[in-house]
Design a protein that fits this description.
It is built from 16 helices and 27 strands. It is an alpha+beta fold. A six-stranded antiparallel beta sheet has the order 8-7-6-11-10-9, with helices on both faces. Strands 13, 14, 15, 16, 19 and 20 form a six-stranded mixed beta sheet that branches.
């Protein structure tokens, strides 16, 4: 092959290829380059011969190290990517793909390095956009919190798509409410929910402070985007732009931050406008283009769905919290058996509930429970169980019997509302502690279904956990509950709490109780102060569930309020009951109730004589109402009858029901007790 042809081929090699081709000597100085290198995206190499890449403002230490390694080892390098701000282009960031191999002569002497250089900035940006969309799908929406989701959007976009990102939402979104569908009309007020900027932007505009409120500028790209729900691209911000001229304060902040290009994208999902996301580029970055607009729109669209999910969750949580507050008592009923108080700290929308229920015979029931799960369904289930337990308590059931009925109800509710597939809803169960305190006998009967055992502090200073047999959680397993009874001296404090307040060990728990109850004036101090102090001692540093404390300081009804007699099993006992009642009511200055109470006592004693075989117990209690009780050894439940005009009997309980404000019957270990209540004059 002749030398002319060789020269033509060599000349074609350095003039026609569409990629940059350079030959470097062993000192990395350029010996020859092709014409494609003359304009690689604006690179000026007209005086490149005899100079190094570093002198031309192209290469950095990493590139020189790579080239010297090729010279020393002879190992070729393919697609070495260099990303940097090229001085020859005014500091604009470029991405170059460089390949290099060592040149040798026939004697294998090193002649230099041959390299190719391709500007892959656009390809690199396209890949980065795809990766950005992938990362956005992974990182945005990790929680159901509007602020956190907005900040995740800003964090994902900064550094890759923009130099500064602002995310603002409407106040109604933070409250869980849905703004009116469709475009928004000036003026629009938003709250800053997310913001991030690269370190190069030191003058961050004050309007982007998280939590701050600002008004969208009229006739600005932001307002235009919200008005028709189309994103706006401003390739080059200019100081004389009309909307910046009308808002000089905003123009000054933009100038100080050094931003020169922006994209404003409405944050909208499911036809509802939630806010605005704005992307900025600062010094050293290229202006936004149409490709960037598409990526920004896609990223915001993904984030908007997450923000809307967070809004919906906030709405449901708000409804659940309002429902929760409506379904648990904000004050406890007034009664004489015990002084009661509580501290309830709602951290989440759980199924924690509590109650103090007045019962017949001046007794009270103390209740604490917790339904599994969180959310509106859990809260409404809690309300149903609380209503049910109040109704069951009104039937004067024993503590263990009541829990068995509640267990069956919980199972029924679980069947009616099974967990939804692929959801975090758990199978419905609940815990409950039910205690009945009688101020006449000063006896407390307790039964529990998986709930923490109560703590008792007695006036002598001793504190211990009451050993209540632990039955299964309501709705789980076989309904098998047992009760235990303890005598409580007057002035004892019974504490019911939920699992959130359990300490690491029983000793730690008792130490916290000892500290709270030993603070002067001790057990005789203000009960609410003790409850608050105990809550502060037991509450974890970062509680994850609602916390409940229910305290009851017991009282007793003495001989001046209670009178009882044992009457023999004979018809004359009815007359004796009338005489005893009349005398006692005179002593209590309740003569106005003598006639009605005599009739009530006479009818109840007569009923006991007819339906039982042993003596009857007559008891009067002068409490907030006048209570009359007759107990016998029969388990026959009384039934109210409506006698016909020609019937000779069957009117006894009907008369009792007419004279008494309330009446009922409860089973006892001996038999039954029929009771009545009359309002005091």
């Amino acid at each position: 092959m002749d030398s002319g042809f060789d020269a033509a081929v060599l000349d074609a090699l350095f003039t026609q290829p569409p990629i940059g081709l350079q030959v470097l000597d062993p000192e990395l100085r350029i010996l020859r380059f092709n014409s494609a290198a003359l304009g690689i995206q604006g690179l000026d190499m007209s005086d490149a011969v005899g100079r190094t890449w570093r002198e031309l403002g192209i290469a950095a230490d990493a590139v020189e190290t790579m080239l010297r390694t090729v010279l020393e080892t002879g190992e070729a390098v393919t697609d070495f990517q260099y990303r940097g701000r090229l001085a020859v282009l005014g500091g604009v960031e470029k991405v170059l793909s460089i390949s290099a191999f060592r040149l040798q002569d026939a004697e294998r002497r090193t002649l230099g390095v041959a390299s190719t250089m391709v500007d892959i900035t656009e390809r690199y940006r396209a890949e980065q956009r795809l990766q950005l969309l992938y990362r956005a799908g992974e990182r945005i929406g990790s929680s159901l919190d509007v602020f956190r989701t907005a900040q995740e959007l800003a964090d994902v976009a900064v550094g890759e798509l923009a130099d500064m990102v602002s995310v603002a939402v409407l106040d109604s979104v933070l409250q869980g409410e849905a703004p009116h569908p469709g475009p928004l009309v000036d003026p629009v007020t938003v709250r800053q929910a997310g913001f991030r900027a690269v370190e190069a932007i030191t003058a961050v505009p004050t309007m982007y402070e998280i939590g701050g409120v600002r008004v969208i500028l009229r006739s600005s790209p932001y307002a235009q985007a919200l008005s028709d729900l189309r994103p706006r691209l401003v390739r080059q911000l200019k100081a004389d732009d009309p909307w910046l001229v009308r808002h000089p304060e905003h123009a000054e902040e933009v100038r100080e931050a050094g931003v020169h290009s922006l994209i404003a994208v409405p944050l909208a999902a499911r036809g509802v406008v939630l806010g605005m996301a704005t992307f900025y580029r600062g010094p050293g970055s290229l202006p936004f283009d149409d490709a960037d607009l598409g990526v920004a729109t896609d990223v915001v669209a993904r984030a908007a769905v997450c923000v809307d999910n967070a809004r919906r969750y906030t709405r449901e949580r708000t409804i659940a919290r309002l429902t929760q507050r409506a379904l648990v008592p904000d004050r406890l009923p007034s009664q004489s058996a015990a002084e009661t108080t509580f501290t309830f700290l709602p951290v989440t929308t759980s199924g924690v509930w509590y109650d103090v229920i007045p019962l017949s015979g001046a007794r009270i029931a103390l209740v604490a429970g917790d339904v599994s799960g969180h959310g509106l369904h859990t809260v409404t289930t809690m309300g149903r169980l609380r209503t049910a337990i109040s109704a069951l308590a009104a039937m004067d059931l024993q503590a263990d019997e009541l829990l068995e009925h509640l267990h069956d109800l919980t199972e029924q509710l679980a069947r009616e509302h099974p967990p939804v597939e692929n959801s975090d809803q758990s199978e419905l169960t609940a815990t409950c502690l039910f205690a009945i305190y009688d101020p006449v006998t000063r006896t407390c009967t307790l039964s529990r279904a998986g709930h923490p055992a109560p703590v008792l502090a007695v006036p002598d200073g001793s504190i211990h956990v009451i050993d209540v047999p632990a039955g299964p959680n309501l709705g789980r397993g076989v309904a098998s509950y047992r009760s235990t009874s303890v005598d409580l001296p007057e002035g004892s404090i019974l504490t019911l709490h939920n699992a959130e307040l359990l300490q690491d060990t029983d000793q730690d728990q008792l130490s916290a109780f000892q500290s709270a109850f030993s603070t002067p004036p001790g057990l005789t101090g203000r009960l609410q102060d003790m409850c608050d102090a105990l809550m502060n001692s037991l509450l974890p540093e970062n509680p994850v569930d609602d916390a409940l404390l229910l305290l009851a300081r017991t009282r007793s009804l003495g001989p001046d309020q209670v009178a009882s007699w044992t009457l023999p099993h004979e018809p004359e006992s009815a007359a004796a009951a009338r005489r005893l009642v009349a005398g006692q009511l005179t002593d209590w200055n309740l003569d106005d109730l003598t006639f009605s109470t005599e009739l009530i006592a006479s009818e109840l004693v007569t009923n006991a004589v007819r339906n039982s075989e042993g003596p009857a117990e007559l008891r009067l209690i002068n409490d907030r109402a006048l209570i009359c009780e007759v107990s016998d050894n029969s388990n026959t439940a009384p039934q109210l009858r409506h006698a016909e005009d020609d019937d000779e009997g069957g009117r006894g309980l009907y008369l009792v029901a007419q004279l008494a404000q309330h009446w009922g019957a409860r089973h006892t270990g001996r038999g039954k007790t029929i009771w009545t209540e009359q309002a005091l004059p």
